[in-house]
Amino acid sequence: MLKDKVLSGMQSSGKVHLGNLVGALQNWVKLQDRYDCYYFVADWHALTTGYSTPSVLQESVKDLLINFLASGLDPDKCTIFLQSKVLEHAELHLLLSMITPLGWLERVPTYKEKQQELQDRDLSTYGFLGYPLLQTADIIIYRAKYVPVGIDQVPHLEISREIARRFNHIYRDIFPEPEALLTEFPKVPGVDGRKMSKSYDNAIYLSDTPKEVEQKIRTMTTDPARIKRTDVGTPDLSPVFQLHKVFSTKEEQDEVAEGCRTAGIGCIDCKKVLIKNVLNVLEPIWAKRQELINNPGQLQEIVDKGTEKARKVAQETMKLVREAMGLI
Ligand code: TRP
């Protein structure tokens, strides 16, 4: 039986961090056995906000592709590609723009939110408004059924469904309405306790060295009320404990929590356990990263092959779309 299609992308606007690993990549790896999966680097999307820093973009594309593979995506099981190398996404984006009411795009909540958040950039551009439409093209050009994403992307999936429906209604039934596969995962705080994000400068990157990881965890914020070693602490107020919930065994969690509450252990003792566990997760990733960095030809070949395969599927869809819209 033909497997259902799954598609997801990651924007190349920075380096991959532990939040991306736990929140997206590990889930993508799980899905590759059950579904026909397409995973790509959304470098055009990165341009919608990062158009003035091409060098950041370029570095990030490489970092993402390396980390896709280093985290366990297997090119024999899934299709890995670069968005800007499949020009059909741009063609579909253009054609969909003909039938997309402006109001739909203006009403997507992330539009105003992101503009607020990134006030240092001029985001009153056509491309930025069209972000969810480009995302729609990414998804429906493969006629994907499921899109694994975090909760923040739900409004984008909603508009994708609406646009697919509108196209099917005006022309003919070509596109299935994609469904979000909501990724349930524990929150991954950064070293300062806020959400892990490159823009807060609080992230632990997959490209960090063991020393850097250790240093970042050692200097992490803990329960602010626990000042002296003899003060008792509240684990739930410490971002270190939140990371334990992601990376440590249940027994270790119970042990450090108890030690914190009774001042039986110090914060450094607690952090040492976390450091060990994070290094354990990262070590195989680092080994694979090194292998790929030493052998750039191999990476290029994997991406070229994936891109070619994706392009074939996209071209088939575009034939139907052109025909339906009266283009010959
Ligand atoms: N908007 C997504 C994000 O920021 C990235 C993305 C672009 C994407 N195109 C997509 C995700 C298509 C899923 C499907 O995370």
Describe this structure in words.
With 328 residues, this protein is mostly helical. It folds into two domains: 213 residues, 3-Layer(aba) Sandwich (Rossmann fold); 80 residues, Orthogonal Bundle (Tyrosyl-Transfer RNA Synthetase), CATH 1.10.240.10. Helices cover 55% and strands 8% of the residues. The chain has 14 helices and five strands. The strands form two sheets. The chain has a three-stranded parallel β-sheet with strand order 1-2-3. A two-stranded parallel sheet has the order 4-5. Helix 8 crosses helix 9. The longest helix has 29 residues. The chain is elongated. The mean pLDDT is 96. The site of tryptophan (TRP) has 14 residues, from strand 1, helix 8 and strand 4.
Would you spell out the secondary-structure blueprint of this structure?
Blueprint: E1 5-11, H1 18-31, E2 36-42, H2 43-50, H3 54-70, E3 78-82, H4 88-97, H5 102-106, H6 109-117, H7 126-129, H8 131-140, E4 146-149, H9 154-170, E5 179-182, H10 210-218, H11 239-247, H12 250-261, H13 267-294, H14 296-324
Parallel strand pairs: 1-2, 2-3, 4-5
The structure holds tryptophan.
Residues 7-11, 42, 45, 135, 138-139, 147, 149, 153, 156 line the site of tryptophan.
